[in-house]
Batch of 2 targets.
Target 1
Amino acid sequence: MTTAPPQLTRDPHGRLQLTAADGSVHEGVVPVRAFPIAAPTEGIALVGEDGHELAWIDRLDVLPEATRQLVEDELASREFVPEIRRLRQVSTFAIPSTWEVETDRGETRFVLKGEEDIRRLGAATLLIGDSHGVQYLIRDLFSLDKTSRRLLDRFM
Amino acid sequence: MTRTRHSLPSPFANAPDVWQAELAPLLARDEQVVATLETDLDVHLAFSPGQVVLTDRRLLARSPGDEDWAVWPLRPGLSLQHHDHAGVGTLELHDAISRLACWRFTLAHNVAALRLHDRFAEHLAARLTGQPVEPLDEAACPTCKAPLPPDQEECPICSRELHEAPSTWTLFRLWRFARPYRNQLLAGFLLTLASTGATLVPPYLTMPLMDKVLIPYQEGHPIDTGVVALLLLGLLASALLAWSLGWARTYILALVSERIGADLRTTTYEHLLQLSLEYFGGKRTGDLMTRIGSETDRICVFLSLHLLDFFTDVLMIGMTALILFSINPALALVTLLPLPFIAWMIHLVRDRLRTGFEKIDRVWSEVTNVLADTIPGIRVVKAFAQEKREAQRFREANRHNLAVNDRINKTWSLFSPSVTLLTEIGLLVVWAFGIWQVAHDQITVGVLTAFLAYISRFYSRLDSMSRIVSVTQKAAAGAKRIFDILDHVSSVPEPTKPQHLDKVQGRIEIRDAAFRYGNRGVIRGVNLAIQPGEMIGLVGHSGSGKSTLVNLICRFYDVTEGAIHVDGIDIRSLPVADYRRHIGLVLQEPFLFFGTIAENIAYGKPDASRAEIVAAARAAHAHEFILRLPQGYDSLVGERGQGLSGGERQRISIARALLIDPRILILDEATSSVDTETEKEIQKALDNLVRGRTTLAIAHRLSTLRRADRLVVMDRGQIVEVGNHDDLMAREGHYYRLYQAQARNVDTDLDEQLAASAEAKPPLKNAP
């Protein structure tokens, strides 16, 4: 794919516009991380409205400032993986269980449908899927406070 | 699409009560609220509540964190766009020039959002044309569009989602399985009572033996042989009685518990088979196998051995205490002193052990999972020479298992010796107090001896009783995992008031169907009506939702939104097994069970006659190759049909579908995995199968769909084109491009062709 930095702009409809190397203009371009958890800042594809890849960005940090900002803003508005900071309460240790949690995006509650929805990614990272398909991240299991860890431990 | 609206006596009929006070001052006198949406995210995707309200003339919204409502009157050029990605839904308000507003919410609110989105379009159109929005009398469920029963707010089909947790008194729930055996259990209980009583006689007899025989002898009296013989005979008799009663008790209760275990196992398995494919998709084989296999066994051992022992122990302790008090209350009190301490210790350790054992179970499943993953995939493992890595994975799982076990053993190992220590101390106290009492002539030596004999039993029972904690916790953990399966309500549940379809014509109607797998929307907004006997070819790139659509029609999954009707009846109101009896399914990878070919053909109709089987095989063009096999129809085939080629297996599965004579036929890439020559054979077989049935066929190779009445082209979860081959070619759209791509490759090898269509698949299925 392209190696030159992609020409991105934002139109009044809030959508990204990509001007390709051949001069063609694509509306509604969406950036997609290839490795959202393992390597969030590497490998970002710009995908057109029809789902075809238009450009590939190897690394975010080598982009010009303005373009990078556009890409990051767009990513931020699309990515929704709240990071759990604290488990306040769980309704029960059996499943389904309603969890009340504090996340980096505020407080919320969700229903855990099964223990298999808690997935381990590496030694200390957990990804928890709720009944509506939202993924919650626990980046470092060991940095949680004791109560949260004790609650979590019952499900693992 | 079914549009619904109630006649609205109040402007707030469609708004939650709590909003009324806030909305009231904002609305004009005759303004009607038609839809509301509560959002739970702000634009930066932080959790924060907001509201969007649609009235018959305006759109009002209060963004998260704002006090004031923003207002947009409905006017030409406005449009509301809805899309969702990764569990977040978005509504955007646009006019011709720019985006005016944007609201975000989690998918819990998606239904409300979609309703608001639809109503917006209706009311905007109504305002522009001056035509009033057509209200429909029939109330329909907003999620599944099924008609609601009168006077009912909640849809009986949708409200089945269950989010309550099962009760934690899991072991008591085993009573459901013990009930049929309550007479035997009662007999066992009475026998336990009697045999425990019998074991308590010997220490009692030591009292006269000491006081009336041995001590008088020491003091110079001769031994009375008659009394001694009587006492010894009593000892022997009680021992024999205890032995025979104990044998009868153990036998009866072991029989019962084995039966309870078997019932538990079969019930769990039967329930498991009822669950939808969605459940199996989310679980791992090894885990399910452990639950049904070893954990029911553990519960059974618990019931037959440990629970029984525990029960005997409790009885023994109770009876002993009674006897001790009747002999000498003061000494009895001292004897029983350590009991509360031990009870306290047991309580203390219980919680830690229970969670620990649950953990061990889960880790154990992990170990099994590694095996269940690797063994079926052994060819891949060996082909890529990854034996070492798989061994390492297993070692890792075992290491984890060890670590968890080590942790719990730390607690556990401390527990037993502590109980023993308390026991020893208890004995010491009894000795000291007893000697003091003997010295003060309050009791005889015989009484002290009897006490010591009793409490050495007593404490040894207490020691074994303390073990019950761990086994109970283990069994409870096992029971919980069993009940996790039993409590799981199938996501394709049986209807509460089933309707029956005796004769199916085969008219299928798909209304506004959407399906979501996890947070990924797989298909959406699909509308399709299929006439009886019509053959539909489903075409599209892989990942375009063809197989999902077919799975929904088979009711392997239920639609997330919308409905599927067969002969005018929602398939969710038909009993699942009844409904599937009318469906014949031929898959890309035919699965043959272990058994003879005849059994495999008759899988869907086990009582089929031999003539029927042969007729089906003939029609499926399988008859001749079956006859070439050494044992003909009685040849054994394995789980993956060893010894048969792909085409042969496929024709057996076609015969299987033919035999049940279904009105609806589904061919999911039935000819994809075979070469062109075999394909022709299979095609002939399929032509027999398709005749007169409503057929949905999925095929990569468009040439195989030449007999289809209509072709339905799908792209990224939606139907993009419908029509026959010539129409679609003339339209020069999706189908034309697919066809051209294949025509170019017509001379090339099949593999290349498949690779080409795989490459053309969109990298992102859910781009907005």
Target 2
Amino acid sequence: MTLTAIIFAGILTYLTRMTMIALISRDMLGDKIKAVLEYVPSAVFPAIIFPGIFINDFGTFIEMNDPKIFGALVAVIVGYFSKNIIATISAGLVSYWFLIFVVFS
Amino acid sequence: MLSKKQLFTRGMLDISPHMLSVIPFGIICGAIGVELGFDPYLVYAMSFIIFGGASQIVFLQVLSGGATSLVAVASVGIINSRHLLYGAVLSEYLERLSFIKKLFISYLVVDQGFAESNRFFRKNRNQEFLHYHLIGTGCTMWVCWQIATLSGIVLGSFVPEELGLKFAIPLTFIAIVVQDLKKIDHVIVMITCGLSSLLFFDAPFKSYIIISPLIALFVAALLSRLKK
């Protein structure tokens, strides 16, 4: 029963991946649409970033003094200047850990 | 001109820093599935069949919360519908591939792989075997995801929960978009998407994950009209 559901979920997921790649050709997308598609990363990833920071595991908003906000700010600053993915992630995690294990403990 | 092997390797290298967040997240995903009481084989089957990060956790949580399979499947479909946008962007670069190759390569499209390969494609439009970069990012992600979820399933959540490693996921995506903060139009689009995602967070089937990008792209369309 669950396996059937997993297979359907898998097929559906595959279709989301395949549809545009396999069925769209260059002529179908005009210049205007291409210009808008350049914004896709900026238009999609904040929908993963913002809830990951501002909403906790129980689906409610965090307090404004939550360590995650500080960690995210540090990650943005370090990422902006270092242009390095590992430095960005580490800086965010370490500053978050510093707050929850040292400052707020 | 770079060879297929060079492009593949470049793809692997470009995505590998993200494994810092992907591997702990995969371990958590595997462990959660077993903790929720699902058959370990089924939990692993998801990594192979769905291969879709957060959507796998949501699937199991929805089912264990007592909802029908239909709701669980619909949630996965809606969460993963963002791939349609990735596909639309990538189609331009994958156009010359045969239909069969397109079918295979599609299975490997993931968030971080799309982000890194798209960045590479834009700078290297003239390379002949561009798609090998996407295969490189996708395969790296696939192998790491299988190993990570499998270790979570077998070993349980050996990553201490107190570390809050789920937080590494937003951080990995911050690393992806942070350079675009230099451009004011991108900043506006990002803030639109972020605020919409919080506003629509409680919308059914986790649909905020596609509603907010669509709102943000609408704003992007207005902005690109203004720029002319």
